[in-house]
Specification:
Layout (H helix, E strand, L loop, with lengths): L1 H19 L19 H19 L6 H4 E7 L8 H11 L15 E7 L2 E11 L7 E13 L2 E7 L6
Parallel strand pairs: 1-5
Antiparallel strand pairs: 2-3, 3-4, 4-5
Length: 164
């Protein structure tokens, strides 16, 4: 019985180390600077991603979507259909987002922006609540990736799961 108690204790101890050993995800102090590149094509692509993040996702100005998203936009998020109009409808009608003023500088907590060829990947700080253990908040990383062609996003990936 004593051995079983010791095993249970150490198992719980090890589990607590796994749950609480995470380092916090830290945002860049200047996320706007991450959306630039010396390479003209990569800079242009990063700027499209910048406006999608800031103008559309952060401030909900989906009336500007045609400036940054192609009509035939391919969506890999399982919650939104493909096509620019379908994505706009998802945010405006389903999620019922409300536009807010577009700030001079981005407020979104961005960790990194990587551009290669026609792809731009943006990693963000995502805060979550540990509902299974302590109820405390923790950070993890979220991402969006877009394929940019001719100055507009034509395809999108993220880590979304189906909404319940």
């Amino acid at each position: 019985m004593k051995t079983k108690s010791i095993v249970v204790f150490f198992s719980l101890f090890l589990c607590s180390l796994i749950v609480y050993s995470q380092e916090a995800v830290v945002a860049s102090p200047n996320p706007d600077a991450l959306f630039t590149s010396k390479d003209k094509k990569l800079n242009r692509n990063k700027q499209v991603a910048y406006h999608i993040v800031k103008d559309l996702l952060e401030c909900n100005h989906w009336e500007l979507a045609d400036k940054y998203i192609a009509e035939g936009y391919i969506q890999h998020n399982p919650n939104a259909a493909s096509g620019r109009d379908a994505v706009v409808k998802f945010f405006v009608e389903l999620l019922k987002v409300t536009p807010t003023p577009i700030p001079q500088k981005m407020k979104t907590k961005v960790v990194s922006v990587v551009a290669e060829g026609d792809l731009v990947t943006v990693a963000y700080v995502k805060e979550e609540k540990d509902t299974k253990h302590s109820g405390q908040k923790y950070t993890t990383t979220w991402f969006d990736q877009w394929r940019i062609v001719d100055g507009k996003a034509i395809e999108h990936w993220d880590g979304a799961l189906k909404m319940m």
